[in-house]
Amino acid sequence: GLVTAIRGGLRYRNARIDGVWAHSGGAPREGRADAVIAFADLAMAMEQVWDEMLAQGHDLTVTFGRVDAASPVHAMAKVAGTLEFCVDLRSENNATLDEAERRLRAEIARIEIARPGIGFQLGAQSRSQPAQLSEAMVALAASGAARLGHAPRRMRAGGGHDAAAFAMAGWESTMIFIRNWNGSHNPDEAMDEADLALAVEALWAALTP
Fold it and tell me: I need a labelling partner for 67 at 20 to 30 A (CA). Which of 29, 35, 151, 153 fits?
């Protein structure tokens, strides 16, 4: 695949939910301020937001990659009084990131009203800018692949890459992606060496007369 754009990210790395610690057997359902349930509300609400925004044509990913229900002190017999988490929103469009964050904050406000005793603290925001890569470089790489009888797909990259920094500094850049079996950031991921060889050959063909 030939990469045309790299998604930017809007992240809250150290978000927190505060509730009220209670005994699992003694605290009735009414009146509980369970941080875990509040997080579940948020995760499912943002899943719905994600579906809606995709249906509207937005490019977006929503990920809660770290969740910790007070691991040093949590226990089977406790209603969780605190939970820490992170949220990672990614898109190739800044306006989409802004809208996803607006929806995130709206869902948090709704949950805080619906669940007295629950409070969210998102903490500091970090952000990386989306990058559009060089169409001329994509076309050059495609021409090399075509000389070998291949027509690679054009695609966006979801992860952060040095090519984004190059592009934003004014250097024309693209990337050649190779098939990765079983996903990425996954111990079962794998690559066929024949695919790697083909990518190198396509690059060489693009750079030589």
Answer: 29
Last residue of a domain, one of 128, 160, 188: 128
113 and 184, same domain (yes or no): no
pLDDT tens, per residue, the chain with 209 residues: 999 888 999 999 999 999 999 999 999 999 999 999 999 999 999 999 999 999 999 999 999 999 999 888 999 999 999 999 999 999 999 999 999 999 999 999 999 999 999 999 999 999 999 988 889 999 999 999 999 999 999 988 878 778 788 888 888 888 898 888 877 777 888 888 999 999 999 999 999 87
Instruction: Specify whether 105 is located in the same domain as 149.
Output: no
- CA 198, chain centre distance (Å): 29
Residues 68 and 14 in one domain: yes
* 178 within domain boundaries: yes
> Among residues 168, 173, 13, 16, which one has the least CA distance to residue 94?
168
Number of domains in the chain: 2
